[in-house]
Design brief:
It is built from 2 helices and no strands. It has helices spanning 13-16, 23-62. The longest helix is centred in the last third of the chain and has 40 residues, at 23-62. The chain crosses the membrane at residues 32-59.
């Protein structure tokens, strides 16, 4: 038996069970996701500002 297909004969019980998350857990996950999105957004804005400042600096060097 192949190592890749070794566990495929067994039924997947985890796929049949419905996901049970409490409302408090859902709210916590939502807060974490929003904070992560905010951090990524701030990081991309900071990167864009650095790139703009660098482009202006290089443009003034050639002028």
């Amino acid at each position: 038996m192949s190592m890749l297909t070794q566990g495929l004969e067994r039924p997947m019980a985890w796929a049949e069970r419905p996901a049970r998350r409490s409302k408090a857990r859902k709210a916590q996950l939502k807060r974490v996701a929003l904070r992560a999105l905010a951090v990524l957004t701030m990081g991309s804005v900071l990167t864009a500002l650095i790139a703009l400042k660098t482009a202006i600096y290089v443009w003034h060097l050639h002028a």
